[in-house]
Amino acid sequence: MTNTNPDSRQPQAGRDGDPYANPYADQGNNPYAGQQGPQNHPGRNDGPAGGPWNGRPVDPFKLIESMLPQHAKNWVRGFYGVIGVAAVVLGAALLFWPGITLKVAAVLLGVYLVVSGLVRVVVAIVELGLPSGWRVLDILVGVLLTIGGLLMLKNAAVSGQTLALLATMTVGIGWMLEGFMALIESWRLPSSGWAVLYAIVSIIAGFVVLMSPVSSTVWLVVFAGCALVVMGVSALVRAFTFGRLSKR
Questions:
Q1: Residues 6 or more apart whose Cβ sits within 8 Å of residue 103
Q2: 50, pLDDT greater than 50
Q3: Which of 31, 105, 202, 214 lies at a 20 to 30 A Cα distance from 8?
Q4: pLDDT at residue 55 is higher than 90
Q5: Which residue positions does the secretion signal occupy (predicted)?
Q6: How confident is the model at residue 198 (pLDDT cuts 50, 70, 90)?
Q7: Residue 70, phi then psi, degrees to nearest 5
Q8: Which is more confident, 229 or 248?
Q9: Is the Cβ–Cβ distance between 31 and 22 less than 8 Å?
């Protein structure tokens, strides 16, 4: 069977009628073609009609801001604003009223545990097709969560201090584990000396926190308050500047 398609019998002619030339070499009218480099090598691609790139480095976050519609920018600004105000208020409360703040945190955690426990018990009772073993286990866990939440609500002040103490001990254990892991993995790094130093400092810091958890809790609360204030101010600045730098 003879192929009558003329395009399949010979290559497409390129520039000056040369059948072996690149038929796409002449891209003078193509707005997406890049600049021709030396000796016909590909050059830089600046995008359509010069595009927004122009051969300069592009900040991906600024690019995303410029692509968002105005209502989306307003939503993002509002989100940053709410997060910033909440972080500043919580950080200031930890710095100036740590006892009351920890008590409120304990109350909120107690309410969450009570609600979570009751929901778990109800779901375990009414859910169909749940194995009896899992049903009993879910009911038991729900009851324990409810009892723990009620105890926290009854002794909110002591629960707040205990909560801060547990958080401090968790940080100390985390620092020690991170130090041991860094020490184990240090031999794989080219500059293992700095990794070993970091591991030793992390282990010592975690050990000190575990040996004096009460005094460490005070410093941890102060540090958490300062960090929240800084994060909140940064979020507020971001709320005022998001999406507006791209207009320049």
A1: 156, 157, 159, 160
A2: no
A3: 31
A4: no
A5: none
A6: confident
A7: -65, -40
A8: 229
A9: no
Residue count of the chain: 248
Residue 230 phi, psi (nearest 5):
-60, -45
Determine how many CB atoms are found less than 10 A away from the CB of residue 159.
22
Query: Whose structure tokens read 């072996």?
Result: 20
Question: Is residue 189 within 8 Å of residue 161, measured between CB atoms?
Answer: no
Q: Which two tokens stand for residue 77?
A: 């600004």
Q: Which two tokens stand for residue 149?
A: 């939440």
Distance CA 169, CA 210 (A): 6
Query: Does the pLDDT at position 142 exceed 50?
Result: yes
Crossing angle of helices 70-96/213-241, nearest 10°?
150
Measure the CA–CA gap between 110 and 106, rounded to whole angstroms.
6
- The pTM of this model reads 0.57
3-state secondary structure of 42: strand
CB 205 within 8 A of CB 182: no
On the question of pLDDT at 112 being above 70, the answer is yes
